[in-house]
Amino acid sequence: MDRSGKLNVRTLLGLTAIALLCKLVVFFLSIRTSMSFSLPFAENWQDFSLAYVPAADAFKSGFAPYGDFYYPYPPLFLYALTSFSYLPIPSWSSALPLVIADALTVVPVYLLARELVSERYSLIASIAFVLAPINLSYVAYLWLNPSLTTLFLMVSVYFLIKRRFDLSAVSLALSIGFKQTALLALPIIMIVIWRSLSRRGAMRYLLITASICFLISIPYIFLSPGPYLYSVFRVPLDFWWGIGQWPPNYFQIGVGTGTATTPDTLNWITSRWNLIVQGIGMPVTLALPMFIFLLPMTLSWVYDPYSTGLLLLILLAGYAALLYRTRRNKHIEEKDSLRYVLYGLLLLFAFYPLYKYYAVGIIPIFALLMRSKRDALGFTAFNFALMLIPRYFASWVLLISLLWLLRHHLAGLLRKPISPTSQNAAGLPQTDLMKA
User: Fold this and answer.
1) Helix/strand/coil for 69
2) Residue 360: which of 373, 345, 375, 344 has the closest Cα?
3) DSSP letter assigned to residue 246
4) Residues 6 or more apart in contact with residue 44 via CB below 8 angstroms
5) Most exposed among 58, 132, 364, 378, judged by the fewest C-beta atoms under 10 Å?
6) How many Cα atoms within 13 Å fall on the side-chain side of residue 211?
7) What is the pTM for the complete model shown?
8) Who contacts 401 (Cβ-Cβ below 8 Å, separation ≥6)?
9) Beta-bridge partner residues of 423
10) What is the C-alpha radius of gyration for the chain, rounded to an integer number of angstroms?
11) pLDDT tens-digit profile of 193-248?
């Protein structure tokens, strides 16, 4: 922790200005090149023009999300894009909240590093985050969606560490309101508060978060409860209403026409890929390389990225084990929540259908892990490895990253328990994130 205890406002403002400058330079480069530049295998997704803008236009035209057209994100994301679309500038105005949010994430990164380590490392982590290739590519250049939810999730963890629990709950609710993946952090944070404070404090946190999420869901939770819960949380639709009751053009309204992306790959792999999933624009899973390279095509009918039961079972079991580990830790502190949230996100992205740009949500936490030049090289290598590897291997990159972070704990399970004096509350060496 920074020994001075005094926040250097000038440094923070300078980092924020640098972040905004870097992100906006890439942003205007994207406008200038019409998003035509793409590294091999990096996935040059066109979701902004084919999904985000058409959805905002449909909303402005009077169509209701979830009820009149399919919309896979919570309402705050649509509200943010629609609000900025009214600016008297070209259609790319809707991308401004995405790019600005990514730049502003440097603020909680700096503050968290300062709380957890020192002023020096807070500068290193902040600059590493600002220059992270994944964020520059997928947010500043391609204008994809994770930045808003990531910003408020990091703010929530910062307030948690400062023991401002109500503000943390409000920030987490806003993060969930932009993208539902942030919901994964709620049980982890509740357990941390329960262990470090009280059960009553954890329930208060839950009540605040749930109340704000419910308010964000109005009026859709009343007008179209089935489609809303199906779209946002994948609750089976036939649980609420019969199949065949979709409104006319439900999946066509709010969607543009064109090709989302054409990943660069070898022709024979593309052919097999198309036969397996009927379109290489679908998300990938850990099982996809096995079907492409190892299994005969006669078994291709088995593969479904959203119905791979074994992977979902492993995901649920892994997350349950993570919560159990968190609950059993007698010395857990608020600062440990950051690492547990990282574990949870890596579990989700590794075992659930994945697009590479989801990794934008973990880059700020990875930046906080750096302590040396070797760590900085590892951070850079992770960014480029995930971007440049063929995307059917992306889930494996994240799984290997998770196992690497857990290597000391796994070694203890396989051999002998790690000495309590050599590990922190998260079960990892004191040389990592939690060492003060």
Assistant:
1) strand
2) 345
3) P
4) 35, 38, 142, 261, 262
5) 378
6) 9
7) 0.88
8) 346, 382
9) 429
10) 22
11) 988 888 899 999 999 999 999 999 999 999 888 888 888 887 666 655 544 466 77
